[in-house]
Amino acid sequence: MIPATLLTNALLVGAVLFCLGLVGILTRRNLIVMFLSAELMLQGVSVTLVAWSRYHGDWGGQVLVVFVLTVAACEAAVALVFVLQAFARTGRLDASAWQALREENLPRVIDHGLPADDRVVPTWPHLTPAGVLPEGDDSRSLERDHV
Length: 147
Description:
- The chain is mostly helical and 147 residues long.
- The chain has a domain at 3-91: Helix Hairpins (Orthogonal Bundle), CATH 1.10.287.3510.
- The protein has helices at residues 3-27, 31-56, 60-90, 139-146.
- The longest helix has 31 residues, at 60-90.
- The protein starts with a helix and ends with a helix.
């Protein structure tokens, strides 16, 4: 294949990965999904660095990708600790859970667009208990049917 075509394809894949990660960070509030989106952005940058390195025929971009992968692995380990601590303290994985971990002298940032609690209690339909006639029915109509 032509080197320019390979470069274009790799840059396109890297840009798509980076944009998907950016959309994931900007639209999601779940901490795990946000950190996975950050990892996706790093992978997009890595694909781009490898593509440019191969196109120019040197090893600089590929060596830099090794360092990027090392930093991404360390970031994932530290992020996992933060997520577990936030879940242990608040019981949920919403990004607003970080508000409780803030220093006491700093004011809380309140997100007015979202409800205070993200847990919705389901409501289930209630059936009439067995052996009890529903309200408004005449018991005489049942006696006529049985006679």
